Amino acid sequence: MNVHVAVQTQTHRLDPNTAAFARDVLDGLTRSQKELSPKYFYDDAGSELFVDITRLPEYYPTRTELGILHDRAAEIAELIPPDAAVVEFGAGATTKIRLLLAAHQVAAYVPVDISGDFIVTQAEALQRDFPRLAVHPLAADFTKPFALPPAVRDMPKVGFFPGSTLGNFEPQEARRFLESARDILGRGARMIIGVDLEKDERVLVPAYDDAAGVTARFNLNLLIRINRELGANFDLSAFAHRAIYNRDQHRIEMHLVSLRDQTVHLFGERIGFRAGETIHTENSYKYSLARFRTLAQQAGWTPMRCWTDPDAMFSVHAIEAD
Ligand code: AVI
């Protein structure tokens, strides 16, 4: 039986999300370069490990971006109309938006995230701290078109997309995301977006392969998740985390390397690994200021301003929809 028939016959009892996960995993593991989507990193354990990553000494993006937002909050706030609705794409913890809200009063905040429960809890906490702010949490996949809540439709819009999550999209996907954000927010809208910058490999690689092994656990957690949710039998001790900088493609790549020849069982299928063969689990693209501006222009946005930290590790851009 080929894998596609196997997955169809064996996943009909699974809930739709798990069945989609199963299809993606089988599809990815039967390619010549095996791959798994980074969107599957974020189960409960993976989300906690990601928070730990953001606190690592080697992982500079989060604290550098927070530093820029803190130091430049007043200048960023000048570009946000006072009666605006701020729409955050992929809102997680509200630490970053709080820096902007403390510097500037806006009318409404729309956190958009696939995980509805999480944003509702975060939105309630934010509402307590900013009682005059209208908070409208929206459970949606922010990479696809979605409709804004009617209450904010007539307000000027400002998108907020921190964290360099754009870097986890392939360049074509990044362009499509920016085009879709422009369509959702409308002509004249502004967007504040965090973008990680290209830099020396000696800084980049440790940021994705830290001494304490937290990023390794984050990467390997994907196999734990596949074992638990899909009944596979990955032997965790037979795979290792690897992070490499692919300079030609301007990206950090994360892989899981098979440490020996081995066979893994999944839905009755045998998935063979040669020693040294890898599963490609994530790309994290790094931009130059000029390459990000070109991408924004191609997607229908005009660059307005940009801020970096003194060491030019990370950038925050303000762009306006054409
Ligand atoms: C969420 N994203 C921006 C992180 C990044 O830096 O690409 C994900 C990550 N993967 C390993 N460490 C952090």
Automatic annotation (TrEMBL):
Keywords carried by this UniProt record: Methyltransferase, Transferase
An example Gene Ontology biological process: methylation
Domain (Histidine-specific methyltransferase SAM-dependent) ranges: 21-320
A Gene Ontology molecular function term of the record: methyltransferase activity
InterPro entries: EgtD (IPR035094), EgtD_Methyltrsf_superfamily (IPR051128), MeTrfase_dom (IPR019257), MeTrfase_EgtD-like (IPR017804), SAM-dependent_MTases_sf (IPR029063)
The protein's name: Dimethylhistidine N-methyltransferase
